[in-house]
Amino acid sequence: MNHSETEIAQLGEFGLIDRLTRDIKFHNASTIKGVGDDAAVMSYHDSEVLISSDMLVEGVHFDLTYMPLKHLGYKAAVVNFSDIYAMNGKPRQITVSLAVSSRFTVEHLEELYSGIRLACEIYGVDLVGGDTTGSKSGLVISITCVGDASKDSIVYRDGARPTDLICVSGDLGAAYMGLQLLEREKVASAGRQDFVPDFAGKEYIVERQLKPEARRDIIDELAKNGIKPTSMMDVSDGLSSELLHICKQSHTGCRVYEDRIPIDYQTAVMAEELNMNLVTAAMNGGEDYELLFTVPLSDHDRIEKLPGIKIIGYITEPDLGCALITRDGESEIPLTAQGWNHFDKK
Amino acid sequence: MNHSETEIAQLGEFGLIDRLTRDIKFHNASTIKGVGDDAAVMSYHDSEVLISSDMLVEGVHFDLTYMPLKHLGYKAAVVNFSDIYAMNGKPRQITVSLAVSSRFTVEHLEELYSGIRLACEIYGVDLVGGDTTGSKSGLVISITCVGDASKDSIVYRDGARPTDLICVSGDLGAAYMGLQLLEREKVASAGRQDFVPDFAGKEYIVERQLKPEARRDIIDELAKNGIKPTSMMDVSDGLSSELLHICKQSHTGCRVYEDRIPIDYQTAVMAEELNMNLVTAAMNGGEDYELLFTVPLSDHDRIEKLPGIKIIGYITEPDLGCALITRDGESEIPLTAQGWNHFDKK
Asked: Are B342 and A134 an interchain contact pair (Cβ–Cβ within 8 Å)?
C-alpha cells in the first residue's frame, strides 16, 4: 500500500459504501429508491421483472496479475446485463456484493467501482444496493441484475422447434484465446521487473477477455426488424454447452456447420501460434457473451440481412441428437459440454 | 470426506444445480419462471418491488466449528427476509450464489440448501436462481431477496419525526451473548475429542445466534392493528447503530431509556458470567434481527397493547443529538455506532 492510499478499516463499512456510491444518478423510471435503506425499491407495473445473479471469485474467474480492477468491475457488471439481454429484456438495476481481504485499499475498491459505474452508465443501468464485507482471502464479487420485458417479448431457452435456424452474433473463441495469451505472457513475465507483454496484433482477443460487451445492439436490431427468437441464451460457457441447453430444454436435436462458426482472424492466428485446435476453442471456449438464438425458417431472409449475425445451423427432431458437421461435410461430431468446471481439483 | 460422500466435481456445475434445486415448489403468484434459464421471471404489476442483498463469508460471519450447515443456510435466507420485512414488505423470491472450496462435498451443499429451503418453506419464499462456483478457500454465500409492498405501505428509514415513539420487537443482545458462549465452548473444546459443550439453561441465546427468525409476525400484527410505522429497519448491526441511521436519515435526534431496553434473562446471566457489560451487549451486539421502528405519539395506546413490542424512547429535534438515558435517569450517554467492522485487522 502506498502512503496515499486509505485502509478500508479507516472508513468502516458505512463510510466505504457512502464513498463508493455517492453521486449516483438514476437512468430508469423504474428505480424508486437506491442505496441507503434495508432494501431498494423499484416499480414494474407495466412489465415483467427479470433477475439474474453471477459470482466472480479471485483465483477462479479472474487473476489480478493481468486483470485491471476497473476492467474487472466493468466485466462483472456486463456479464450480468448479458443474462438479461439473453431473455430479450433490458437490464435496469444491479446490486453489488463484495467480500474483500485487507490487502485491498479504499482506492482499489474505487477502481473496481469505477468500472461497475462505467458499465452502468453505458448500458443505462442503476446501481441500487448491495453489501460490502471482509474476506479472509481474496476478492469475491456477487452481482444481481434486475431487468424488465413485456410478457410477450420474453424469450426462454425452451422454444426452439425443428427446422428453426440457429443464429449467433459476433464471433466465438476470442475471449478464450485472449485468456491463453494473457496466461502465456504471465508465465513469461515471472520474476522479471522489466517485462513488457507483447500484445501487438492481438489487441482484439485481449479486449474480448478483459472487457467484454453485452449484445444490447443485437436485441435492439432484432426488435427493430420484428424478429422474435424462439429461444435464446448468451454464450458464457461455450457454444457446445449452450446448444445442448437449448436442445435439452426444447426437446430437440441440432446440426451446426463447422465452416459457419464465426471466428476472428486474431483468434485463428493465436490458436495456430499455440498449436491449439481452433474449432475446440470456438465451440468450448466460453466467455464470449455473444447471443445464441433460434428463429423460424420463415425469418431466413430477414435475419440474413442483419450485420453481425450468422446462421450456423438448424434445429432437428430430438432423436437426431446434437452434432457438428465437419468442414468437408462428410462427418458428424456429437456435441459435448466441455464448459468450465471450477470444481475440478487441478 | 466419507466414502459415501460425493465430490462436487463428479456432478459438475449443472448437475449440482439440478440436484440442489429439484422439486422446488412455488408459493407466490408473482413467480413466473425459476431456475433453469438466463434469468428468473417475476410479475409485479400491482405492487412495488423490493430488493436486498447480503453476503456471508466463512471466517468473517460464521464459523463452521459450531455452525451446522443447515442452520447456516436457514440464517443466510432469514437475514435477507428480515431486510424486506424492515421495509414493511413481504419477501417473495431469492437467488442464492455460492462459492465453495473443494473441501465441501455435494452432501454438505445439500445440508446447506436444506436450511435455505426450510426457511423458504416457512416464510413462503421461492428460490428462483443463483450461481454456484468454486472458491480457493472457504464458503461464501450471497443471497438476494426480492419482495413486494404496495406503494403506500412501504416504510423507509427517513420518516421519523420529533415526538414519535421508538419501538423495538422482542429482546436484544441475545444473539451476541450466544456468540460469546459458542466462542467460549470452542476454546474449551480445543483438541479434546470427548468434549461436550455445556449449553444448559442457555439454549435460547444459542438459538438466537445459530437460527434467528425474521419478524414477519410483527409486520402482520402492525397491519392488523392499522399501525403504519413512520420509519423502520431491522437490528442487524446493533440498536445504537440502527438508531443513528434512522435519526441521520430522518434529520432528528432521539432519547432511549436504558431501563426500557428489552433483555432476556439468559442474556443477562451470560453477561454476568462473562463479566461483560449487559447494556453494551444489548445496544451494540447486533444480529438480533428484531424490528426497530417509530410510530406517531397518537398510536401510543394501540402500540402499548401489542405483545412483543416495547416502547423504548422517543424522537427529538436534531440539535438534541442521540443519547441513552441511564437507569437512574440522571445522565445521558451519547449513542455511538460500534457495529461490526469486518475490515479491522485483528
From this structure: yes
Is 80 exceeded by the pLDDT of residue B340?
Answer: no
B52 → closest Cβ in A39, A49, A136: A39
**Which residue numbers in chain A have pLDDT < 70?**
1-3, 338-346
Q: Which of B130, B140, B151 sits opposite A99 (nearest CB)?
A: B140
Alpha-carbon span A260 to A309, nearest angstrom: 11
Inter-chain touch B32–A48, beta carbons under 8 Å: yes
Q: In this complex, which of B46, B50, B142 lies closest to A142 when CB atoms are compared? A: B142
Which of B84, B94, B144, B244 to mutate: most A Cβ within 10 Å?
Answer: B144
Percent of chain A exceeding pLDDT 70 equals 97
Cα(B97)–Cα(A145) distance, integer angstroms: 13
Chain A residue at shortest CA distance from B105: A343
8 A C-beta contact, residue A135 and residue A74: no
Q: Looking at the predicted complex, does its ipTM rise above 0.90?
A: yes
Cβ neighbours of residue B14 closer than 8 Å, sequence gap 6 or more:
A337, A339
- Rounded-to-integer distance, Cα B285 and Cα B240, Å: 9
Question: What is the C-alpha to C-alpha distance for residues B129 and B141, in angstroms, rounded to an integer?
Answer: 13
Per the structure block, which three cell numbers stand in for A188?
Answer: 513469461
Against a cut of 0.90, is the pTM above it?
Answer: yes
CA distance A181 to chain B (A): 23
Name the grid cell of A328.
468437408
CB B15 within 8 A of CB B7: no
Q: What is the 3-state secondary structure (H, E, C) of chain B?
A: CCCCCCEHHHHHHHHHHHHHHCCCCCCCCCEEECCCCCCEEEECCCCEEEEEEEEEEECCCECCCCCCHHHHHHHHHHHHHHHHHCCCCEEEEEEEEEEECCCCEHHHHHHHHHHHHHHHHHHCCEEEEEEEEECCCCCEEEEEEEEEECCCCCCCCCCCCCCCEEEEECCCCHHHHHHHHHHHHHHHHCCCCCCCCCCCCCHHHHHHHHCCCCCHHHHHHHHHCCCCCCEEEECCCCHHHHHHHHHHHHCCEEEEEHHHCCCCHHHHHHHHHCCCCHHHHHHHCCCCCCEEEEECHHHHHHHHCCCCEEEEEEEECHHHCEEEECCCCCCEEECCCCCCCCCCCC
Nearest beta carbon to residue B9 from set A33, A136, A343: A343
* pLDDT (tens digit per residue) in A34-60: 998 999 999 999 999 999 999 999 999
Name residue A83's amino acid: D
What are the tens digits of pLDDT across the range A87-102? 999 999 999 999 999 8
Mutate which of B54, B55, B64 to test chain A, going by most A C-beta atoms within 10 A? B55
Instruction: Give every CB contact of residue B143 below 8 A, 6+ residues apart in sequence.
Output: B53, B54, B55, B76, B77, B80, B94, B95, B96, B97
What pLDDT was estimated at residue A197?
A: 84
User: Which residues are within 8 A (CB) of B49 and not within 5 positions of it... i.e. 6 or more apart?
Assistant: A41, A42, A43, A44, A49, A146, B42, B146, B147, B148
- Cell 473463441 identifies what position? A173
